Amino acid sequence: MKEKKTVSLQTKITALILCGIIAVSLILSVISMALISDASKESVARIMNLTCERESEEVTTLLEDVEHVTEAAASYAEKHLDGAYVLEDEALREAYFDEIRYYFDRAAAATTASKSYYFRPDPEIAGGTAGFLNIYDADKGAYEPSEVTDLLAYPEDDQLVEWFYLTRKMGMAVWIKPYTDIHTGPTIISFCVPVYVENTFVGIAGMDVEFEQMASLAESISVYDTGYAFLCDLHGSVYVHKDLAYGTDLSSDPGMEALVKNLRRDDSEGTLLEVESEGKSYRCAFTTLINGMKLVLMVPETEMLSETRRMVSTLLLAILLTAIFFITLTIYFSGRVTRPLDHLLMAAKRIRGGDMNVELTVRGNDEIGELTAIFQSMVDQLSHYIRDVRRNAYVDGLTGVLNSTAYDSSKKSLDDTIKLGDAGTFGIAVLDVNNLKFINDTYGHDCGNTYICKASKLVCDVFHNSPVYRYGGDEFVVILKNYDYEHSDELLENLSAEMRIRNAAAENEWEKAFIAAGIAKFDAEKDTSVEDVFKRADEMMYANKVEMKKQGRRPV
């Protein structure tokens, strides 16, 4: 009778251990790739949105300067107009125009974005050619008078006069889409503010900006290796694009359908979208500028996922090498392995379920104990990496303070307590760093970064009991509670005093800090959200900013 071939127990245990190691390696590989992929996608989305916000800051600053100047001029025009009869009388009208022109000329000096400014009365009151238009002459360094367009010589929807009639129709401040004016020359965008006397429309005050300034800023934006930016309107009509002509309708490209649909939705900002263009897959994000234009960032999908692929490849290689190493050890040392492997498998299942709080007990100093320790180390490193990815999304990379994402999270928490009637006492400090554009333009962006960091350090030193957030390129927000809330006025004085001390000791302009600040406190009887408090603080900051400029507290 043929003797039955037997298999040793060691062989069976070795086979079991090998299967366990391979299973654990495969499970860990799949789970790790899934977790890294999800974390990387979240990180990429935040990077794209932060890039949108950062790159739009310079454009926003230019447009906000134009808005502030034009609205101030319109307000001045309303306050100094006794009635419509002034515009009907030629002598009174010209004297009034001289006064408005003088104010406009001084106010326009506060912005570098202005191409021209004007005041045009209602043609039904003063005729089609009444008013004035002053265009900046770069050679003379001053605004010079120019011929005005006859408002009655063109249909109301003609682009040469649409800026006037659209503003009159809307009854509110309006940004006009790009157009070419026969007097100013290059393509411009206009910001127009209606002027009323005793609730009667009497004219508009406006300011023009060369569209080339915005186009150049958009064209200069680069993301990753070959990513780019472009400008369009909410319907997907192109203003500036590296490959497409002005006026191209993006909705005609089926691959861009997802972007065009989301441009009209307010809740889509901050969403990473998948689109196709010229046969390539892209990820895109967009933000809305204050003039209604959309700044869109486009990055090839292959570039965005390259870092994820590298990390996954490194992880797989590490897992593979580790598996090979311990498989070799298992062949020689197969004892005392069954129970530790069971623990490892259970831990892997917990990780598969999303539980990274795994604590493995190392029993003995043999190979299985070492395997358990390395497995625990890999889990710890993976957990640490995921925590770092999430934590970095709330920290400003330049200054080290909290960023706008962190502020939005804190703001939401405060808003929830306000709705519940349990907000308690808190205040908002809004601080704006003056002259950042001057430092960047004069000394370079590296010095501009130093300037921002010096300002951030000063704010943190003064408000050291409260969280400091970098809300924008040159704007910081502090949420005041407890001691800082009770001593807010004293802290403002400390800020001013410390600013003078540090500026006096600084050797270079970029080592100084000129900060305008405003503080507002939550009033439970009239404030329904943190935004209400923020707006008051922002208004006080802007008033402080104007006062600082009057006092000359900025580098010249």
End-to-end C-alpha gap: 108 Å
Query: In angstroms, what is the radius of gyration?
Result: 32 Å
Number of strands: 17
Q: Report the principal-axis shape.
A: elongated
CATH topology of the largest domain: Alpha-Beta Plaits
Strand content: 15-25%
Question: Uncertain regions: pLDDT < 50 for 5+ in a row?
Answer: none
- Helicity, as a percent range: 40-55%
Strand order of the largest sheet: 3-2-1-6-5-4
Average pLDDT: 84
Number of helices: 16
What's the story with the biggest beta sheet?
Answer: 6 strands, antiparallel
Task: Give the helices and strands, then pairings.
Blueprint: H1 9-79, H2 85-88, H3 90-108, E1 114-121, H4 123-126, E2 132-137, E3 142-146, H5 162-170, E4 174-180, E5 187-197, E6 200-210, H6 211-219, E7 222-223, E8 227-232, E9 238-240, H7 257-263, E10 273-277, E11 280-288, E12 294-300, H8 301-332, H9 338-352, H10 367-392, E13 402-403, H11 404-419, E14 427-433, H12 436-443, H13 445-462, E15 468-470, E16 475-480, H14 482-486, H15 488-505, E17 515-521, H16 530-550
Parallel strand pairs: 13-15
Antiparallel strand pairs: 1-2, 1-6, 2-3, 4-5, 5-6, 7-8, 8-9, 8-12, 10-11, 11-12, 14-16, 14-17, 15-16
Overview of the molecule:
With 556 residues, this protein is α+β, with helices and mostly antiparallel strands. It folds into 4 domains: 9-40 and 304-387, no CATH class; 63-205, 2-Layer Sandwich (Beta-Lactamase); 214-303, Beta-Lactamase, CATH 3.30.450; 402-550, Alpha-Beta Plaits, CATH 3.30.70. 51% of the residues lie in helices and 19% in strands. The protein has 16 helices and 17 strands. It has helices at residues 9-79, 85-88, 90-108, 123-126, 162-170, 211-219, 257-263, 301-332, 338-352, 367-392, 404-419, 436-443, 445-462, 482-486, 488-505, 530-550, and strands at 114-121, 132-137, 142-146, 174-180, 187-197, 200-210, 222-223, 227-232, 238-240, 273-277, 280-288, 294-300, 402-403, 427-433, 468-470, 475-480, 515-521. The strands form 3 sheets. Strands 3-2-1-6-5-4 form a 6-stranded antiparallel beta sheet, sandwiched between helices. Strands 7, 8, 9, 10, 11 and 12 form a 6-stranded antiparallel beta sheet that branches. The mean pLDDT is 84.
